[in-house]
């Protein structure tokens, strides 16, 4: 099968890891859909720990390179405070994550449309477009109910988004794998 319109380098980048990662995302997405509150709190704790660790790393860097400049301490202190607040007040953290999630979903839609364009006309590119449309719809729905519904919506939306990301990767990976094997000598 000849695929003259698809960049060979793009096809080669989608290896067996594409299918594996796709299946893992499907499993994680299913867990998020079935247990949305758990996924919501897990997301808030994860983000809180990332901010806390990032703040500690910035504090070490600032201590070593410019310990006397007060403005250089602003970023690590803000990261430490924000991460700590998310860990000590996880419901408020979920609300903040919810707002950030709406922004993420809008950016994810843009990324999905870009990826779909790069693999077009290979089979499966439509799944990535569909994934982008779902991300836009989820972002809009999330913003309508925020912050009241954040506890279950964050987990549900993370789960739905991971599920569709996984399905899109499996579809693209499977179809490009077929193309790659049919083009092999």
Description:
This protein is mostly helical. It contains 7 helices and no strands. Helix 3 packs across helix 7 (about 150-185) and helix 5 (about 90-120) packs parallel to helix 7. The protein is globular, with a radius of gyration of 20 Å. The chain starts with 7 loop residues before the first helix and ends with a helix.
Main traits of this protein?
185 residues, mainly alpha, 7 helices
Return the structural class: mainly alpha
Spatial extent as radius of gyration: 20 Å
Shape: globular
What pattern of helices and strands is seen along the backbone? HHHHHHH
Q: Tell me the number of helical segments per DSSP (H or I, 4 or more residues long).
A: 7
Termini separation: 11 Å
Mean pLDDT: 86
Portion in strands: under 5%
Total DSSP E strands = 0
Main β sheet profile? none
The parts where pLDDT drops under 50 for at least 5 residues are none
Q: Roughly how much helix do the residues carry, as a percent range?
A: over 70%
């Amino acid at each position: 099968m000849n695929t003259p319109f698809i960049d060979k380098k793009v096809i080669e980048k989608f290896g067996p890891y594409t299918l594996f990662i796709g299946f893992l995302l499907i499993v994680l997405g299913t867990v998020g859909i079935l247990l949305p509150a758990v996924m919501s709190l897990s997301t808030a704790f994860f983000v809180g720990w990332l901010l806390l660790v990032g703040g500690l790393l910035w504090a070490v860097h600032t201590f070593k390179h410019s310990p006397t400049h007060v403005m250089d301490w602003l970023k690590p202190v803000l990261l430490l405070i924000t991460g700590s607040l998310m860990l000590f007040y996880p419901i408020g953290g979920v609300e903040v994550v919810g707002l950030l999630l709406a922004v993420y979903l809008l950016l994810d839609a843009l990324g999905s449309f870009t990826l779909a364009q790069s693999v077009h006309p290979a089979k499966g590119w439509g799944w990535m477009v569909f994934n982008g449309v779902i991300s836009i719809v989820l972002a809009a729905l999330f913003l309508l109910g925020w912050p009241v519904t954040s506890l279950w919506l964050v987990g549900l939306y993370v789960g739905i988004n991971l599920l569709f990301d996984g399905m899109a990767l499996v579809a693209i990976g499977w179809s490009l794998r077929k193309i790659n094997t049919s083009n092999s000598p």
